[in-house]
């Protein structure tokens, strides 16, 4: 009876975001209007990448524009425009970021039509636009909540990202059935919201970012500076857990196990919002936090290519079981597994980025597409399997909790 009670408490904890999401039927964004392509102008066209300004939603009663970089395979290679249709990708930066020229170039060379937007109200030169939206900071993200919801950074950023999506979909070279999105840190947070309200994307990779800001120490501290009413308003309108359950696309959640901001518990609760067939996990051991670290994993493009080609072959841990003191996982992978490890920790008091994790090599049974390792539930609080296949693609299990092992035992 006690074991059943523990399992029930764990399941309720992980189900909480679903309950929150079900309460939110409407959004503050006018989705129909944001699906219309905005007016735009070309500022410059250099080295195969165009600098654009496009119209976005009002800020404090005044019209705004957003700066962006755009390119596609024809532009970046300076070839004669073809009649080819390219998949499109929306690139969303995080804190301290901007519209990255090199990020667009990376994706255009990889065969995508790519747009990277600035979400700080600034232009190409890094200076505030005369008609730019809100700057990015605690005052606009959290503390503007008591003024006007539509004058907050999150409202503007989600709207601008959706308009950027609408804009590239209006370009004749973009395949309307093949648009995707990836965002880093705060951009991952925005991606989680965006795919819950914009149903035109085919796949998403939020990097680092997750929901449950009231469960994340660094953000909870800021939310606790608000009144109880304002805090509730923020969570009900701007926490990704409100929207992510509405997403119905394949989503790769990519993070590190020791991320300072997006830690184990809120991260697990966030990816649980997406249906199991649609969610894929890559937890990279000791992954550093930053824009360069967030866009370099080869898994991102591989995942998008796989989804858009309908191969359904991206590697995935399918299930985990615990039997006879062995933790066992089954997996799918189009190529053989070349390495597999179990990362585990009992350290729940040290700040996440300094937490101590242990590593165990695991046995690979290629014939049965399974891996196993001897472990005692007492050894771990959190754990995950980390695998890599012969194509160099890494993937992982979802987080495994001590309570789960106790029940399975």
CATH class of the largest domain: Alpha Beta
Strand element count: 18
Mean pLDDT across every amino acid position: 92
Radius of gyration: 22 Å
Write up this protein:
The protein has 409 residues and is of the alpha/beta class. It has 2 domains: 9-308, Rossmann fold (3-Layer(aba) Sandwich); 316-408, Immunoglobulins (Immunoglobulin-like), CATH 2.60.40. 30% of the residues lie in helices and 29% in strands. The strands form 3 sheets. Strands 1-2-3-5-4-6-7-8-9 form a 9-stranded mixed β-sheet, with helices on both faces. Strands 12, 13, 16, 17 and 18 form a 5-stranded antiparallel β-sheet that branches.
Topology:
Blueprint: H1 2-23, H2 31-34, E1 40-46, E2 49-59, E3 62-71, H3 73-76, E4 86-92, H4 101-109, E5 113-117, H5 138-141, H6 153-169, E6 174-184, H7 186-197, E7 203-207, H8 217-223, H9 228-238, E8 250-256, H10 264-271, E9 279-284, H11 291-295, H12 298-308, E10 316-323, E11 326-332, E12 337-345, E13 358-361, E14 363-365, E15 370-374, E16 382-389, E17 394-396, E18 400-401, H13 402-408
Parallel strand pairs: 4-5, 4-6, 6-7, 7-8, 8-9
Antiparallel strand pairs: 1-2, 2-3, 3-5, 10-11, 11-15, 12-13, 12-16, 14-15, 16-17, 16-18
Q: What tags apply to this protein structure?
A:
disordered N terminus; alpha/beta; Immunoglobulin-like; 18 strands; 409 residues; nine-stranded mixed sheet; Rossmann fold; five-stranded antiparallel sheet
């Amino acid at each position: 009876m006690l074991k059943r009670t523990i399992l029930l408490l764990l399941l309720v904890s992980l189900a909480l975001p679903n309950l929150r999401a079900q309460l939110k039927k409407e959004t503050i964004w006018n989705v129909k209007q944001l699906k219309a392509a905005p007016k735009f102008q070309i500022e410059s066209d250099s080295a195969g990448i165009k600098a654009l300004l496009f119209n976005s939603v009002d800020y404090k009663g005044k019209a705004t524009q957003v700066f962006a970089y755009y390119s596609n395979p024809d532009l970046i290679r300076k070839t004669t425009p073809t009649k080819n249709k390219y998949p499109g990708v929306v690139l969303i930066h995080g804190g301290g970021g901007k519209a990255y020229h090199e990020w667009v170039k990376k994706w255009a060379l990889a065969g995508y039509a790519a747009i990277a937007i600035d979400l700080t109200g600034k232009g190409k030169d890094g200076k505030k636009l005369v008609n730019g939206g809100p700057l990015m900071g605690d005052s606009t993200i959290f503390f503007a909540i008591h003024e006007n919801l539509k004058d907050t950074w999150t409202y503007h950023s989600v709207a601008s990202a959706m308009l950027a999506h609408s804009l590239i979909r209006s370009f004749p070279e973009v395949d309307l059935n093949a648009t995707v999105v990836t965002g880093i840190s705060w951009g991952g947070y925005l991606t989680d919201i965006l795919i819950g309200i914009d149903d035109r994307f085919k796949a998403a990779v939020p990097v680092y970012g997750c929901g449950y800001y009231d469960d994340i120490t660094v953000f909870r501290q800021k939310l606790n500076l608000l009144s109880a009413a304002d805090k509730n308003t923020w969570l009900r309108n701007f926490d990704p857990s409100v929207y992510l359950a509405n997403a119905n696309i394949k989503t790769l959640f990519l993070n590190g196990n020791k991320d300072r901001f997006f830690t184990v518990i809120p991260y697990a609760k966030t990816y649980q919002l997406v249906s199991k067939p649609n969610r894929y996990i890559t937890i990279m051991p000791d992954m550093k936090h930053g824009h360069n670290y967030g866009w370099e994993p080869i898994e991102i493009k591989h995942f998008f290519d796989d989804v858009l080609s309908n191969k359904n072959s991206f590697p995935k841990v399918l299930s985990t079981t615990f039997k006879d003191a062995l933790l066992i996982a089954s997996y799918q992978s189009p190529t053989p597994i070349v390495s597999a490890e179990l990362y585990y920790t009992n350290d729940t008091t040290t700040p996440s980025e300094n937490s101590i994790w242990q590593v165990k090599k695991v046995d690979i049974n290629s014939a049965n597409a399974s891996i196993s390792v001897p472990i005692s539930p007492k050894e771990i609080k959190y754990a995950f399997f980390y695998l890599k296949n012969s194509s160099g693609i890494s993937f992982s299990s979802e987080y495994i909790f001590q309570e789960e092992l106790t029940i399975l035992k």
